[in-house]
Design a protein that fits this description.
It is a single chain. The chain is mainly α. The protein has one domain. It is 57% helix and 6% strand. Helix 1 packs across helix 2 and helix 2 crosses helix 4. The protein is globular and about 50 Å long. The relative contact order is 0.17.
Length: 166
């Protein structure tokens, strides 16, 4: 896809992708976390097992997003909304770059939540900063896209899938 990159995804399409991805992830995390809880007898109490549970959940998310963001693959919400994660030049994203995007997005989200918890509750609003960045960035990239060198593009459907007038 190098040479003529696809147009950037608009903020509305991005927001719909986040919402749809959240619905899919509810099921993925429910089954994965249920398996963790069943195998370890974790019941939500503070301690080492809770930390392990949180790291396990973060690992499941990392695996999910690294897989679907790399090598031209797309998750169901991305296919439905005609979205694809691309390298800055429009090419495919490597697994390392997809993982870097996930780490950047997670760090920004966790940092915003920690700032709101430890410093001032109003700082919880920083959770929206990466998304708000798409409104001011010339290429409509989120803050984590800038950090990871990626872009979310709106890709056209293949000719075979477009509707045909009869």
């Amino acid at each position: 896809m190098q040479g003529s990159p696809d147009p950037a995804a608009d903020p509305w399409r991005r927001l719909m992708g986040i919402a749809y991805e959240g619905i899919i992830l509810f099921g993925v995390l429910w089954f994965a976390d249920y398996a963790f809880s069943a195998l370890t007898q974790f019941r939500g109490h503070p301690g080492a097992l809770r930390t392990a549970f949180q790291l396990f959940t973060l690992g499941v998310l990392a695996a999910y997003f690294t897989y679907f963001w790399s090598a031209g693959r797309r998750s169901l919400p991305m296919k439905t909304l005609a979205l694809q994660l691309q390298a800055r030049d429009g090419g495919s994203v490597t697994p390392a770059r997809a993982l870097a995007r996930f780490v950047a997005a997670s760090a920004l989200a966790i940092g915003a939540l920690a700032a709101g918890y430890y410093l001032h509750p109003g700082l919880h609003l920083l959770i929206f900063a990466p998304y708000a960045w798409t409104l001011v960035d010339r290429d409509r990239r989120a803050l984590y896209d800038v950090l990871a060198g990626t872009r979310l593009a709106h890709v056209a459907a293949p000719p075979a899938l477009r509707s045909v007038d009869v």
